């Protein structure tokens, strides 16, 4: 039985966060998850970070924003005759931290805004009309949600009304779900109409080498010239290792599991990084576990001896690597996983 959907319609005159808009604000929430409410609060903070005026405060006759994985398309009109638009590309700087309690560092937001031709903006408006009436995902029967993927956000505003809708990964929905197909068609057509992939590529070209994040949900790396040279140098080796990865994983997982069980070997449930020579000999064993107690270090030393002892019975002559390589070993509940 489907849970009861609570759709909130509020006329806000003096509400923190929305100000004195006098608009009907439509931000649906669903059951206890309040998924759309979560995204609306998150979107509010993103607007501030990107120095964008909040769309619910717009006085235009019609305004619309589509947030599409590192890009935002906005169109506005005051008379439904003349249209303006902008395509915004954005990323944030990303820094890896090794400490479990790192100091929070301010992230830098990089933005590129491309004005949309008025004739194209009109076409975008016509395209928006194909999805403007689709309810938020929380009100669509059969719309599934997951932990990863991409959440698309549509905002629309008129002088009297503001609407906020979110959609988790339309491509992951059932192929028979009409609303998901409509949104996918909208995104594909918009991509072609504005050459969004081309604009994103040009924007990335302006970034300096380093690590960047798209809305904190994924990290992308732009290699330096030195890193590119290193990649080309090691590319044949990495390509070869990719061809034997599955065979190596299955062999090590099955063989180590049997050896551990047969010899009643037990090691602590943590990640172990095994480094092998090009002759397939075990050279080093490391872990990303942080040792706070001396007893933890002793346990790890014992585990390394156990793994080395097990590796004496490992035969991986079928791997003919030209360079040293590494594998990751996860040991949980007496199951060995080589990744």
Describe the structure.
With 339 residues, the chain is of the alpha+beta class. Helix content is 32%, strand content 27%. It is built from 6 helices and 16 strands. It has helices at residues 35-49, 118-128, 178-194, 196-205, 225-262, 294-311, and strands at residues 5-6, 9-12, 23-26, 29-30, 62-67, 71-77, 83-93, 109-116, 151-158, 161-168, 210-213, 219-222, 271-276, 282-286, 325-332, 335-338. The strands form 3 sheets. Strands 2, 3, 5, 6, 7, 8, 9, 10, 11 and 12 form a 10-stranded mixed beta sheet that branches. Strands 14-13-15-16 form a 4-stranded antiparallel beta sheet. Strand 15 and strand 16 (335-338) form a beta hairpin. Helix 2 packs antiparallel against helix 3 (178-194). It is elongated, with a radius of gyration of 26 Å.
What features would you highlight for this structure?
10-stranded mixed β-sheet, 16 strands, 339 residues, alpha+beta, 4-stranded antiparallel β-sheet, 6 helices, disordered N terminus
């Amino acid at each position: 039985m489907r849970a009861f959907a609570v759709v909130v319609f509020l006329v806000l005159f003096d509400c923190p966060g929305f100000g004195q808009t006098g608009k009907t604000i439509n931000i649906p929430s669903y059951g206890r998850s309040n998924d759309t409410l979560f995204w609306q609060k998150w979107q509010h903070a993103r607007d501030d970070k990107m120095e964008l005026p909040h769309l619910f405060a717009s006085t235009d006759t019609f305004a619309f924003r589509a947030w599409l994985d590192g890009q935002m398309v906005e169109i506005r009109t005051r008379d439904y005759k003349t249209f303006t638009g902008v395509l915004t590309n954005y990323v944030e700087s990303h820094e890896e931290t090794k400490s479990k309690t790192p100091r929070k560092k301010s992230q830098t937001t990089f933005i590129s805004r491309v004005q949309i031709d008025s004739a194209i903006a009109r076409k975008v408006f016509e395209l928006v009309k194909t999805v403007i009436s689709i309810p938020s995902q929380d009100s669509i029967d059969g719309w599934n949600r997951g932990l990863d993927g991409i959440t698309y956000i549509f905002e629309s505003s008129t002088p009297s009304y503001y609407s906020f809708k979110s959609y988790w990964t339309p491509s992951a929905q059932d192929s028979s779900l009409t609303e998901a197909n409509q949104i996918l068609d909208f995104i594909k057509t918009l991509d072609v109409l504005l050459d969004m992939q081309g604009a994103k590529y040009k924007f990335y070209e302006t970034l300096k080498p380093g690590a960047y994040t798209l809305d904190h949900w994924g990290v992308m790396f732009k290699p330096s010239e030195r890193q590119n040279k290193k990649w080309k140098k090691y590319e044949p080796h990495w390509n070869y290792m990719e061809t034997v990865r599955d065979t190596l994983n299955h062999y090590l997982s099955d063989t180590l599991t049997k050896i551990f069980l047969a010899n009643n070997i037990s090691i602590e449930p943590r990640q172990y990084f095994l480094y092998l020579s090009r002759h397939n000999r075990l050279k080093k064993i490391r872990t990303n576990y942080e040792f706070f107690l001396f007893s933890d270090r002793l346990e790890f030393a014992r585990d390394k001896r156990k793994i080395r002892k097990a590796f004496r019975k490992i035969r991986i002559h079928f791997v003919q690597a030209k360079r040293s390589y590494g594998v990751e070993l996860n040991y949980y509940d007496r199951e060995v996983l080589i990744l």
